Amino acid sequence: MTNISIEAPEVVRGQPYPGAPDNWKRFFTFSTDHKVIGIQYIVTSFVFYLIGGLFAMIMRGELITPEADLVDRTVYNALFTMHGSVMLFFWTFPVLVGLGNYLVPLMIGARDMAFPRLNAVSFWMIPIAGILMMSSFLVPGGPSQSGWWAYPPVSLQNPTGNLINGQVLWILSVAISGVSSIMGAVNFVTTICRMRAPGMTWFKTPAFVWAVLAAQLIQLYGLPALTGGAVMLLLDLTIGTSFFNPEGGGNPILYQHFFWFYSHPAVYVMVLPAFGTFSEVLPVHARKPLFGYRVIAASSLIITVISSAVWVHHMFASATPSWMRMFFMVTTMLVAIPSGVKVFGWVATVWGGKIRFTTPMLFALGGISNWLFAGITGIFLGSAPIDLHVHNTYFVVGHFHYVLYGAIVMAIYAAIYHWFPKMTGRMYYEGLGKLHFVLTYIGTALIFLPMHPLGLMGMPRRVASYDPEFAYWNVVASIGGFLLGLSTLPFILNMVSSWIRGEKVGNNPWRAYGLEWLTSSPPTVENFEETPIVISGPYGYGRHQPLVEHAPNPGLTDFPESFTKQPSS
Amino acid sequence: MTVYAVLVTFASLWMAKQAYSWFPPEAAAEAKLLDDLFSLFTGLGTFIYLGVIGPFIYSLIFHRAEKYDLSDGPDIEGNTWLEIIWTVTPLILVVTLSFVSYRTYEKMSIRGPMELVHLHMPQMVEPAYAEPFDSTPQQEIQEAVETSPIEEIDVVAKQWAWIFHYPNQDVTSTELHLPVDRRVRFKLHSEDVLHGFYVPAFRLSQYVVPHEDIDFELTPVKIGTYRLRDSMYSGTYFAANQTDVVVQSASDYQQWLADAAAQTPTPAFNPANYEYSQVFEPGSGNTKDKVAVRGWATIPPAPPPVVNYAPKHEPESPPV
Ligand code: HEM
Ligand SMILES: [Cu+2]
Ligand SMILES: [Cu+2]
After folding, report:
1. Which of A164, A342, A383, A473 to mutate to test the interface with B (most CBs of B within 10 A)?
2. What is the pTM assigned to this prediction?
3. How many inter-chain contacts (A to B, CB under 8 Å) are there?
4. ipTM score of the complex?
């Protein structure tokens, strides 16, 4: 092994950013570096996660007793509306975009995203939209109280008569975040299709990148429908058109079609990168190639296609004709197949592996087990007759929180821990990480499992008060909820203190096999000094074959010997 | 391996049995159909869950790296047969589940009159699916479901009250009374926003859409008092938009109708109205004063409904 120079690493290893501050201040600039933007997304959305979580705690506080005694009904309604909206639009979407931003260029051997300035603009729209949404707490009628669906005619009712009201701010905020997402999607799709390193054919591209591509394609076909629906709703609300307002002859069910045509596939925009994360984390910590990699990769695109034709399962109880109920019942159930293929692949990946229970591995394993459960209850919901009983009950809330919290948030945590050494060059504290995992896993089960029996018993969602027969399970759920709130403390402590003074580890502490680990930690400004030339597929554990033709960052030497092809003689 | 498979099978059967106990009483013919379907889903779901999670946990326990072992695991990329099997099996499974769901849905025949034509007039073009797929125990249910509706009731939902109108006797009520073992057809109307007509004991819900009349049928089969809830979020007092459903014997039901018809309509107690008035005239020592945080403006509830019959509730009793 030839050491090229001793000086080179010094320049490479720091975090120099030409012309920009070389410390934490760079995260407050209009940076065009995809890595800075990635971390900006992640940290900003985490702040919104805490805000949304606070709303959830108050809601669970209200629901600990049957009466509406902690907060007034209008406050409760505003809280669940803001909770759902913030969690989806300002936490889950942006944090996943942030992870994608950070990882995709590194994983495909690119120096940045295709449109770095557009990327920065997309990011800065998020805090603006988020602050706009929060500002609705300060307008006279308070925040929107119509739920994150904003179904008319409820969303068109305006008790204050003001032109500036919570609902208008809500629509504007969601529209801005939608525009940001469309710009982001264009950027991701272009980057992934055009900027992969030479030699990185589609079936040499990591599963995470496939998943991000599949997810962003959904944004491209779906968001225009949602945006169109939102504009029509805004017109109904402000200038009195009647697209959806029954008073003027409009059709509120039409809005539901616009809304769900995007918002069902949107769940896959969120869950696909989570699947991608599982596919990246498991091979590293089980030290085995991803089982059935090609099928897992392709199944992401299949999900993109099928999920464009299932939206009516949210409308089985609307004035939906039977043929439509039956058609969408079948399409909905078909999604189980590509999703199932992934689960089987993950199980086969850990089977016979050399598993190490690191924190990212624990979160990935926990996330997969939760996803399995959520996928099965999803099949229940897909069956039209069953849905007619549990629709809009806590059963649905239990189901989608198992997906959103149990699988997606767990995957986000897995990703943050797994790539933390890459982002910072330092290691997190394993003990705190494990404590975080245990609290999260138990909390998730305690809060979201009881929602299933509650729904079967007939407790509707979105109620500020309920019949006493539902009290028992609600108390359990509230305890679980407070536990989840508590679980974020070790995480925050861990991240902050490890970033400042965590143990410095090399460039590749996991001995992971992938392009992103072929550069320094944290990576240099343009990631790779020389464009890597990829010669084998991802996940080459146990195979002892080089990944690239030559070292993209000559001088960095602490990689497993199998990483780069040695010049023969 | 075999032992585990047997255990999983037993666990699944047990869960399928348990599933029945997770529901409110089966007060309608449709509820029995739904519970059977749900039990099937629970059994298969348990089987799949345990079938996957078992090997998963097994490998997590037994395939861990030794302390100082830094080597890689076996380099296994895939297995075509295995992959085909685990694609085709779920495919068969979901196609089966769709089919069974479809049959259950057909049997419930809750849809509007256009679609009911086929079922109620067997002499007309008869699709093959009309014959019940497993006969004996279901036969009674099926007959109950296939008879023509004998009662027609108008249901009016508004922010935030339910009003039931019995057109033959011209009776109005804020409590829903139904005769047992008779098929009932509802005509659902909404005066303002979307509401959801939902009786958990009947296992059925249907949105009530403004400016649209929706037909909805069911057959109560068990005498008792159940809860009707608004399942579709409908604004501020949504959670209080509930009422009782009283399923009675045919004679009690007729008696109730006759009594109600004799009464002059009076304004009924309405929780939404009551709460609204408390928020704006506080200080009378009621629950509303105990609310820790007061909120924002709301659209005022519609005036209390004027009906022949209203349950005699004290102001304290509804869940506020
Ligand atoms: C196996 C795959 C899945 C199936 C078959 C499925 C099925 C369903 C169905 C039929 C509903 C409608 C229930 C109702 O409104 O009564 C529903 C609701 C929901 N699902 Fe899923 N789902 C799946 C995966 C997901 C994923 C991946 C997510 C999110 C990342 C998700 C999030 C949600 C949400 C948020 C709702 C509630 C929508 C609302 O009522 O506001 N689901 N799911
Ligand atoms: Cu309470
Ligand atoms: Cu959906």
Report:
1. A383
2. 0.91
3. 304
4. 0.91
